[in-house]
Amino acid sequence: MNILFAVLLLGGLALLAGIVLAIASRVFHIEGDPMMERIDAVLPQTQCGQCGYPGCKPYATAVASGEVDVNKCVPGGERAMLAIADLMGVPPKEVEEEAAPPMLAYIREDECIGCTLCIKACPVDAIIGAPKQYHTVVESHCTGCTLCVEPCPVDCIDMLGKPEVLEEWTWSAPGKSRLVIEDSAEGETHVRAA
Amino acid sequence: MSGLLDRFTTLLGKGAAKGAASSIELKAMIGSGGFSGGVHPKQMKITAGSPIVQSPLPPRLILPLKQHIGQICTPIVEVGERVLRGQKIAKSQGYVSAPVHAPTSGTVLAIEEHAVPHPSGMGRLCIIIEPDGKDEADESLPPITDYRAEDPGVIRERIRLSGIVGLGGAVFPTFIKMLRDHRHPVEMVILNGIECEPYLTCDHRLMLEHSAAIVRGLDIIMHAVEAQRGVIAIEDNKPDAIAAMQQALADIAFEHIEVRVLPTLYPQGSEKQLIQSVTGRQVPAGKLPLHIGVLCQNVGTTRAIHDAVCLGQPLTQRVVTVSGDAVPSPANISVRIGTPIPFVLAQCGLEDLSGVRLIHGGPMMGERLSRLNVPLVKSTNGLLAMRQEALYSENAVEEPCIRCGHCVTVCPVGLVPNELAWHCRNDQFDRGQEYDLFDCIECGCCSYVCPSHIPLVHYFRYAKGQVAKIEKERSFAELSKARSEARDNRLAHEQAERAARRSKVRKQQAGDAAGEEVSGAETSGDGKEDKA
What is the pTM of this model? Predict the structure, then answer.
């Protein structure tokens, strides 16, 4: 009799818990993959494809499903790798390729034939122009992914280093750039790193 | 910069605090003001007795289009145009900005990038003027003699048009600080006559020589913000300035303004620390003095406000202390803004700049200039030229933290600099922010007392820059993501449309074919029209 009572009680509790869980899974249902979204949020969104996937989101999806390592994002560098490893709960793995310094695409406009191929290639719509019109790159939107260089039939796109501006200058870490200043009598200045 | 501080601290007498006697001497160095912490660096105010002299006109004036905190200005003159003294040559772009005025009459030679006083050594767009020596004034701003009868809004607009920014070194546009907010009425205006940085004496000399103008300037500010109380705060190391200001108040018979003498302590001249010393109240982190009903203005700024309102002169010159052991005759000089710094140094007998380290500002908070051919700007309150030999601790190497805790004791904000530096050094900026990185005022007290020569402030500046950079990259990534998603959606939409069109065309073709069959059937007289 006691055994029957225990079985009934536990069975009832299990049933109740099951119903609660079933309701909760409906009520708190989340669309999409939260892990993928969190990984996507730490990626630099250059959409450059250097990881072997066609964009940041596909790479995030692949990482979240565990089919690829956490160290494939080149422009994200060590910081992105550490953040992803932290999210995934896996040991960090060194990023093999060194990220190139930030670049911007420039179109030599007098050579552009207006074929719109680069416009179609740009993953962030940073190139404007129309068929048989000059195209140009919107500097503030360019991520420097280099995807526009390959399709150009006349090779009129240059990848140039992002110009350094005073507003974006920040202090470097102590001991990393002690400058030696040499001034000639004419007031000219030479600065070199010690 | 902290590398610089390391070098300076020895010069300022920290050398004495080294070794066995350090804890006793350090205790004597740590003062007790309204705020906790602070240090007593050696004063070195060698120019305190030198009257302000007027610098001659340089052969060329270089005016950076941004000499304030906020947005850069746009030039409104053209190359070759003749300009007059006080004429506006660049206008504000955006709200937080201050216009630039021609310091003398002359011709615009060029509008081009030129090196500016900045630790990066980078350049910025500047207007270059060749003076014609006539110094003709533009008199488009009439003097307001009876300012008490004017509307406070008119006074503030005059201050905005005159390009006045905080001349203590922070160069925040002054008119913004003077906005009236009915939720936070200004009860007290504090005139900052502290000048706690070693070496600097320009505010001290201004208080001695232009006391009447400064007192009137304070009255103008009080009228503009409708404040009832005015306090002139001066440290007790300037007894002559205290007497001069009291005399000026007695002469004009201003009873709503008082002089408050405070014990000498660095960094009492920092706005929030000064407010705490004067009122006993703290400005909460992330808030403005306005939120506790206080407005602070520097002595030089106040004098510039007086000149702008009562004389109709925009900000085109300022007083600067030229000092340091490499300067043969240190002085306080009134210089036109835009004067090349080598020209100013030459006025003090320093012509050969080889082996000279140049510091823009005071030794505690100033920045070492990596280029010498830069103009003097609105923020230049001091120019210190030091011989390399004098900075013998240039070879000082950063040693491990010994956890003595001196930096914690002297921090005027109550931070834990050693822990904070640890996180910054290891690029753990999140942890750094938990340790209130952004409350650091970069006063340099911690670097000054550190027996291990750890450039603490430099670490904090580095970390602040990195946090800003990461934040910028993150917002750019978000923008890129939005653009990329929009593109993907558009492409998907276009493809769907094309597919729809194609299937429609196909359906139509199929329909047409069927129709032909039907019409064919009709002609054959079958009469079956259901299909159509």
Answer: 0.83
